[in-house]
Amino acid sequence: MQLHWHRRDLRASDNRGLATAAEAAEGEGGVVPVFVFDDGVLAHAGAARVRFMLDALARLRERYRERGSDLVVARGDPAEEIPRLAAEYDAERVVWNQDYSGLARTRDAAVRRALDDASVARESVHDAIHHEPGSITTNAGDPYSVYTYFWKKWRDREKADPYPAPEADSLADVTGGDLPDIGDLGFEQPTADVPEAGTEAARERLSSFCEDAIYRYDEDRDYPERDATSRLSTDLKWGTIGIREVYEATEEAAESADGEEADSVEEFQSQLAWREFYAHVLYFNPEVVTENYKSYENGIEWREDEEGLTAWKAGETGYPIVDAGMRQLREEAYMHNRMRMLVASFLTKDLLLDWREGYAHFREYLADHDTANDNGGWQWAASTGTDAQPYFRVFNPTTQGERYDPDATYIKEYVPELRDASAEEIHSWNELSPTERESAAPDYYDPIVDHAERREMAISMFEDARGDDEDD
Ligand SMILES: Cc1cc2nc3c(=O)[nH]c(=O)nc-3n(C[C@H](O)[C@H](O)[C@H](O)COP(=O)(O)OP(=O)(O)OC[C@H]3O[C@@H](n4cnc5c(N)ncnc54)[C@H](O)[C@@H]3O)c2cc1C
């Protein structure tokens, strides 16, 4: 018998670890699929993510039950639970897919030691990304810190095909326990609408995206009201769909495309490569979870501003596009990418608050929170990360709103106080007089900062951090 330990791979198909275990277990008692609720991991979770995870586990369990097996669940420290389950099922080997975050690697090292002590064989394989950390490097063998070079090598590298789902006769005939309720795990039901979980729902998102939107992705992806992106981030975070299956669908879409449409498919693939780039960054620099990737001569003097932080979190900054993004996060446990860039810029460059404050808030609310991508995105916006936005390029939230939501459709969807205001009023909100604001949208907020002033302050904050004055 073999044990497959599911973690962030809540699917049966295109699962390399499971396929590896199934191959060895065929005719040898089959694979026992297990999942351990780990309080160490739950301590960093948010309600929306836990909801999605529980729903995905329920779907996965159905899949196993349809094939005469079951998902065995346990709760506790995996370093105790995994050897215990291996002993209970008399498993010869435990297999799992690697997770690249520092916390997961520390946990996995403890599980490895415990299995070695119990004389149970174990194998961990690369699955979550196409090209494992260390496989795409500079010619000198170092990890890339510039995305463009990484992308070129990533694009040209051959990709593996999806792994087959295990046949029913390679799964063990076992009976799993009940799944806990969200309350049992210490979380309230999320107030946000969480996307439907499971491989079937992920496949539907993928196929409907590849039918049409993928060909317009390059042109439309920055416009939040166009619904032009795949919405696969939560599936990729939880592994309800495999990356090889996603990539294969994009390659099939590319076959019937040329010119701009083919470029658009490639643009989408390059976002998948960003995900892998950040996974590599995190793998080689686990400290980025709490520290700046870039070092500064004097350190950055972030401000403290409880009121500003509270207004930002609530979507009450008086900058319509920023507030729409922050409210989308609360309503959907998701935010459009351009809005993530914008609200992150607003927190760090307009409120001059530490990116770690924003990262913690995103981690609490996003269903797709992924340490590598979330951290990469925050450090990009804060100009502290790998291949980050230069510190002197500060997004103007007013012109960004005008450009990417010209009719204010997205803003009005999430900020009901602005529904009766015209797009023109919304896009000049910070320039209107108090009387004009009162008449356009009496319940909406005054801008909490002056963007032009804060932009100057942000630039000098970074120049001080860089020690630029001292060099003059
Ligand atoms: C401040 C900030 C925080 C972010 N936090 C997260 C996070 O916690 N989890 C997360 O998955 N993404 C995060 N992103 C990246 C990006 O915003 C989301 O992946 C994207 O909005 C998800 O929507 P989608 O699936 O429709 O994306 P699509 O545009 O359809 O992209 C397809 C997939 O590519 C990957 N991807 C796309 N853009 C990026 C990117 N910039 N960096 C890394 N991977 C990318 C994702 O897996 C995504 O699902 C963050 C970006 C910023 C600026």
CATH architecture level-2 label of the largest domain: Orthogonal Bundle
The largest sheet has its strands arranged as 3-2-1-4-5
Relative strand content: 5-15%
What is the CATH superfamily label of the largest domain? DNA Cyclobutane Dipyrimidine Photolyase, subunit A, domain 3
Largest sheet: 5 strands, parallel
- The CATH class assignment of the largest domain is Mainly Alpha
Q: From the alpha carbons, calculate the radius of gyration and give it in angstroms.
A: 24 Å
| Helix residue percentage | 40-55%
Query: Which ions, cofactors or small ligands are bound in this entry?
Result: flavin-adenine dinucleotide
What's the number of extended β-strand segments? 5
Distance between the termini: 69 Å
Q: Give the helices and strands as they follow along the chain.
A: EHEHHEHEHEHHHHHHHHHHHHHHHHH
CATH topology of the largest domain: DNA Cyclobutane Dipyrimidine Photolyase, subunit A, domain 3
Mean pLDDT: 96
Q: How does the helix and strand content classify structurally?
A: mainly alpha
- Shape, per Cα inertia axes: globular
Count the domains.
3
Q: Which regions have little confidence, pLDDT < 50, spanning 5+ residues?
A: none
Number of helices: 22
What does this structure look like?
There is one protein chain. 50% of the residues lie in helices and 6% in strands. The chain has a five-stranded parallel β-sheet with strand order 3-2-1-4-5, with helices on both faces. It is globular, with a radius of gyration of 24 Å. The longest helix is centred in the middle third of the chain and has 26 residues, at 259-284. It has helices spanning 16-25, 39-42, 47-66, 78-88, 102-117, 147-156, 199-211, 217-220, 233-238, 243-255, 259-284, 306-314, 320-332, 337-350, 355-365, 371-381, 397-404, 409-414, 423-426, 434-440, 451-466, 468-471; strands spanning 2-6, 31-37, 72-75, 93-97, 121-125. The termini are far apart. The mean pLDDT is 96. The protein is mainly alpha-helical and 472 residues long. It folds into three domains: 2-128, HUPs (Rossmann fold, 3-Layer(aba) Sandwich), CATH 3.40.50.620; 129-159 and 198-284, Serine Threonine Protein Phosphatase 5, Tetratricopeptide repeat; 306-466, Orthogonal Bundle (DNA Cyclobutane Dipyrimidine Photolyase, subunit A, domain 3).
